Amino acid sequence: MKKIILFVHLFVTIIAAQYEAGQFIDDIVFTDSDVDSLSNIVYSQKSTKELISSGKVILISFFNPG
């Protein structure tokens, strides 16, 4: 059952994609949260351009089943 859900998810993602590989996107800024060594929640602002320039890959999924 998980394979079928994964296949449908990938199929819908590919069909509904608005951007193609290599296209430029607008800079998106979002709030990230993390927990420090004292168990405090630390919030920080991150942007897509920051992450991409540091060599990280960004995967945005709007169909996360949980």
Task: Characterize the structure shown.
By secondary structure, this protein is α+β, with helices and mostly antiparallel strands. It has a domain at 23-66. Helix content is 32%, strand content 21%. It contains two helices and two strands. The chain has helices spanning 2-16, 48-53; strands spanning 29-35, 41-47. It has a two-stranded antiparallel sheet. β1 and β2 (41-47) form a beta hairpin. It is flat. The two termini are 16 Å apart.
Summary tags:
flat; alpha+beta; two-stranded antiparallel sheet; single chain; 2 strands; 66 residues
How would you concisely characterize the structure shown here?
The chain is of the alpha+beta class and 66 residues long.
Q: What's the total helix number? A: 2
Q: What is the average of the pLDDT values?
A: 76
Share of residues in strands? 15-25%
What gyration radius follows from the Cα positions, in whole Å?
16 Å
**Strands in their spatial order, largest beta sheet:** 1-2
What is the distance, rounded to the nearest whole angstrom, between the alpha carbons of the first and last residues?
A: 16 Å
- H/E series: HEEH
Helical content stands at: 25-40%
Which structural class is indicated by helix and strand composition?
alpha+beta
**Main sheet attributes: strand count, strand direction, barrel closure:** 2 strands, antiparallel
Low-pLDDT stretches: none
Global shape: flat
Number of strands: 2
